Amino acid sequence: xxxxxxxxxxxxxxxxxxxxxxxxxxxxxxxxxxxxxxxxxxxxxxxxxxxxxxxxxxxxxxxxxxxxxxxxxxxxxxxxxxxxxxxxxxxxxxxxxxxxxxxxxxxxxxxxxxxxxxxxxxxxxxxxxxxxxxxxxxxxxxxxxxxxxxxxxxxxxxxxxxxxxxxxxxxxxxxxxxxxxxxxxxxxxxxxxxxxxxxxxxxxxxxxxxxxxxxxxxxxxxxxxxxxxxxxxxxxxxxxxxxxxxxxxxxxxxxxxxxxxxx
Amino acid sequence: xxxxxxxxxxxxxxxxxxxxxxxxxxxxxxxxxxxxxxxxxxxxxxxxxxxxxxxxxxxxxxxxxxxxxxxxxxxxxxxxxxxxxxxxxxxxxxxxxxxxxxxxxxxxxxxxxxxxxxxxxxxxxxxxxxxxxxxxxxxxxxxxxxxxxxxxxxxxxxxxxxxxxxxxxxxxxxxxxxxxxxxxxxxxxxxxxxxxxxxxxxxxxxxxxxxxxx
Lengths: 263, 214
Prior knowledge:
The structure holds two protein chains of two kinds.
Chain A: E1 4-15, E2 18-29, E3 33-37, H1 44-50, E4 59-64, E5 67-68, E6 71-73, E7 79-81, H2 84-91, E8 94-97, H3 109-119, H4 125-138, H5 154-166, E9 172-176, H6 184-199, E10 203-207, H7 211-217, E11 220-225, E12 228-233, H8 235-239, H9 245-256
Parallel strand pairs in A: 3-10, 3-11, 8-9, 9-10
Antiparallel strand pairs in A: 1-2, 1-4, 4-5, 6-7, 11-12
Chain B: H1 3-39, H2 43-58, H3 61-74, H4 81-106, H5 110-118, H6 123-138, H7 140-153, H8 165-176, H9 179-207
């Protein structure tokens, strides 16, 4: 097997006439943090959602740990939908954290984290809840286990969502703008959990507007603009001057807002 | 009016409560199955659900009950009037509850289904563990409303020969000639039952976590 956890090859995504992703090829190395940055509408979230098959690409392929995701080619070279069972198997290696948390509102924090352990992994209630508590402790929320999502702050909800993904022991974690829906003072607690995960060697793909996080935690940064992947490189190279003119322009909008001292 | 008469009405109201409760619950199960058919993406199932709902919403309950009552002997089915009443009411309320639930199912945020997909749930698991509980919470006020309507509509099942509150009242009026007292008492009993249902419904709404799309 190659060293790459995810391999994206010539990915194209069109919504009707609009091309959202234009021939994207990208390798996500194992055990590293890969950040996708770019202006809104650049296609970075769509690319991440394709990596979880929450969006179906129009053309091209994605491999997760060497296995095709979503589509397979039959003997005649014709592209076909993967069976639901195979899709679930490939997906079981991926954890996904959403911008809107997407916790199930009728379950407690503990219920959210243990649900799939019980229903999918067929663990007993006691065993599932024990494993779930380990994850809640890891994100610092063991004392909120009995709370419903509506009783938690946004930052706490996102940490429960991370715990819910981690409970299934994925090899890869995808983060879709995990702090964009949070008040600024709550982003820190979520980013800290993500830093902890990165230091444990989790393979992570992060779509983010947190340029500081990308620069300090990221091992590789990909810059997308208008559906095209302009470049992928180490942060030290990406942010070193002279910069790509389009990136310079993008970073200027951050400086204008005084949001970053780093760039 | 004597206590003896009032007691007879109260006893008959137990039948009203029993027939309505059982029908509402069976109707809810049928409504969830109709919703599953609608969401299944399987065309014949969707057609069946649509036909079922439009037929039973589009014809009067009284006509449905009379049809059922006269149809069963023709096709050689002999069942007690209690069962006939429950079948008739269940099927009718299933159509209405399914239509109420449709709005609830449409209100389940896509993201909650996506997170279930990512957690490895099968579509059937997602339906029962995520979609149904959330849809039920979103439509709880409408479902309580439907329960009250069915409690009142159960007065129609006397046409299949079941003695419930309304039929008992009619019988007592025939033998005592006290229509005002007896019908007013029957109305009062219906009112009290429905106040209890409405209050219980509001309590349930308040206590269930995650109501209101939160």
